[in-house]
Design brief:
- With 583 residues, this protein is an alpha+beta fold.
- It is built from 10 helices and 22 strands.
- The chain has helices at 2-28, 351-357, 371-388, 391-422, 424-434, 438-452, 461-479, 503-518, 525-542, 547-582; strands at residues 87-90, 94-99, 104-114, 122-128, 133-141, 157-158, 162-164, 169-172, 178-189, 194-203, 209-217, 223-233, 254-258, 265-267, 278-282, 285-289, 293-302, 305-306, 308-315, 321-326, 330-332, 337-348.
- Strands 1, 2, 3, 4, 5, 7, 12, 15, 19, 20 and 21 form an 11-stranded mixed beta sheet that branches.
- Helix 3 (371-388) crosses helix 7 (461-479), helix 4 packs parallel to helix 10 and helix 5 runs antiparallel to helix 6.
- The two termini are 31 Å apart.
- One of its GO terms (molecular function) is membrane insertase activity.
Length: 583
């Protein structure tokens, strides 16, 4: 009975893990499996048709959200800037390009993240060319908004076409520390005296970008408009997804949004129209989520006051996915100035940074239904990484910590298994004595269990305890960008990918076999043969899992072997002493 129970638990763990992965793939995997093309050269790709259009007579196919009020014809700009050369901005984290027509961010390269493990090219987050469209757009719509005019997007004047941190100024952050702050101003003027200054503000060491509009109204009339920010993406494959083996999880690719009341909500691309987002919130956010990375707009302030924004999603006329926000109407009296802003984030899903930007934005690091365990595991990994500076050794130390926490429960279980091993000869004698009398054999066996204080099912407990930890750690390795391309030592240069030489899975199989030899063996020869095959099955299964997960399992098995060996010796010695005392 006990052997069949243990065999069933092992089989259940195998099947459950496989089914969970398949279910995740079905729910969150992206249908498009086309190969992602290489990043194209930066071009000034006109995306005007994808922007908000507040005109009440706009075509039904327009991609633009409707403003609160109908737009009027905006006076022409006094600038005659003909050049639309992209503005290049480089910080310690970004290389970013802005189109002066509309002031949209049309390309972002993340300098601290490689395109792939074997490439020294930076990871391309946003881009706009003939092969792929993924851009961040913003502007002013409404009665006087320049992005609502029939003349198309406003063309901003800029001081120069390239900025770096050498152009930055030192300012104090909220903690009073001096940081380099780079501000890129862009100016648009109308013939009736309205000046609109669009500013992009970057801080050294920070991914968030503050995008603000300062409306200086020198005209004799009241100025009205609304700020919008949106992310537009096509249906191309997730470039952040890497190959961790044949069992790679299909992590979520699509839209997401949150409010202080509903912290985190997913929105699949297929549902951008059918179940489209239409929510008003103060302190909300919208985002495009992919493996390891996220782009998000967080509505900001009118002056010093946070505003309530309308969060929306929709499909464009050419089947592009658009998710964004629109501010309330801004009223700027004649002779007055008003500033409205929002924050744009495009980069790795670093939980500590995302948590500070908006409530729920950090949940884009999606650990699935085992997130409470996964969160604790990640906190533990971070703690040890701060000490040793290596994610591989952090996994080893975390495994030791988990084993110490579970030590009291596992020790009780292993002691019961050791007693089963000691009384195995007695059980064999009883089986031979009672032969085909199964009822008598069962009665004598239960009496023996009671006399020796053995729980035949206790051997299943360690497996039941380890299974949720095993799966939660899998999701931590898959979702935590900190472990993307993280090396350990020697041939293991990416803990989130499979072992290229399959050495760790083979070691895992060896430790599983040794551990099995320390357990009481099944009395049934057929069961014993099947049980001996299990390490081979699991070795093959683990060939295609992340090296970090296999490393965890090896360390776990090694500690279990040591623990079980000492317990077996202790129980065997106590049994011998008991027999000597009795005789």
């Amino acid at each position: 009975m006990q052997q069949w129970a243990r065999f069933a638990i092992l089989g259940a763990m195998f099947v459950t893990a496989y089914l969970l992965i398949l279910a995740w793939q079905k729910d969150y995997g992206h249908a498009n499996t086309a190969v992602q093309p290489q990043a194209a050269a930066v071009v000034s790709h006109d995306v005007s048709a994808d922007l908000p259009n507040s005109q009440s007579t706009a075509a039904a196919s327009s991609d633009v959200p409707q403003a609160n009020i109908a737009a009027q014809q905006t006076p022409a700009a006094t600038s005659t800037a003909a050049s639309q050369q992209l503005i290049s901005i480089q910080t310690d984290l970004y290389h970013l390009w802005i189109n002066p027509k509309g002031g949209d961010i049309v390309r972002i390269e993340l300098l601290n993240h490689d395109q792939s493990k074997n490439s020294d090219q930076p990871f391309v987050m946003l881009e706009s060319d003939a092969k792929r469209t993924y851009v961040a757009q913003s502007g002013l719509i409404g009665l006087n908004g320049p992005d609502s005019s029939r003349g198309g997007r406003p063309v901003f004047d800029v001081e120069k076409s390239a900025y770096t941190l050498t152009d930055a100024k030192e300012t104090k952050d909220k903690d009073g520390k001096l940081v380099k702050t780079l501000t890129v101003p862009m100016v648009y003027k109308t013939t009736d005296g309205v000046e609109i200054i669009k500013r992009f503000t970057f801080k050294q060491g920070d991914y968030p970008i503050v995008v603000s509009y300062q409306v200086v109204n020198r005209s004799p009339q009241n100025w009205q408009g609304q700020m919008f920010g949106q992310i537009k993406r096509d249906n191309s494959e997730d470039p952040g997804k890497s190959d961790q083996g044949i069992f790679t999880l299909g992590t979520f690719l699509g839209g997401a949004w949150g409010t202080p009341e509903e912290h985190y909500n997913k929105l699949k691309f297929a549902n951008f129209s059918d179940e489209k987002l239409n929510v008003e919130a103060k302190g909300g956010w919208v985002a495009m989520v992919q493996h390891y990375f996220v782009s998000a707009w967080i509505p900001g302030h009118f002056g010093d006051q946070a505003y309530t924004a309308k969060l929306e999603s929709r499909k464009s006329a050419d089947n592009m996915n658009i998710i964004g926000f629109t501010s309330p109407t801004i009223n700027v009296p004649a002779g007055k100035t008003m500033t409205v802003d929002a924050t744009f984030y495009s980069g790795p899903k670093i939980q500590s940074e995302l948590k500070d930007l908006a409530v729920g934005l950090n949940q884009t690091v999606d650990y699935g239904w085992l997130w409470p365990i996964a969160k604790l595991l990640f906190i533990g990994l971070q703690f040890f990484h701060n000490i040793v500076g290596n994610w591989g050794w952090s996994i080893i130390l975390l495994t030791v910590l988990v084993k110490l926490i579970l030590w009291p429960l596992s020790s009780k279980s292993y002691r019961s298994m050791a007693k089963m091993r000691v009384i195995a000869p007695e059980m064999q004698r009883m089986k031979e004595e009672f032969g085909e009398d199964r009822m008598r054999f069962s009665q004598e066996m239960m009496a023996l269990y009671k006399r020796e204080q053995v729980n035949p099912l206790s051997g299943c407990l360690p497996l039941l305890l380890q299974m949720p930890i095993f799966l939660a750690l899998y999701w931590v390795l898959m979702e935590s960008v900190e472990l993307r391309h993280a090396p350990w030592m020697l041939w293991i240069q990416d803990l989130s990918a499979m072992d290229p030489w399959f050495i760790l899975p083979l070691l895992m199989g060896a430790t599983m076999f040794i551990q099995q030899m320390l357990n009481p063996q099944p009395a049934d020869p057929m069961q014993a043969k099947v049980f001996r095959i299990m390490p081979i099955i699991f070795t093959v299964f683990m060939l295609f899992f992340p090296a970090g997960l296999v490393l965890y399992w090896i360390v776990n098995n090694t500690i279990t072997i040591t623990q079980q060996w000492f317990i077996n010796k202790s129980v065997a010695k106590a049994r011998e002493n008991k027999v000597e005392t009795t005789s």
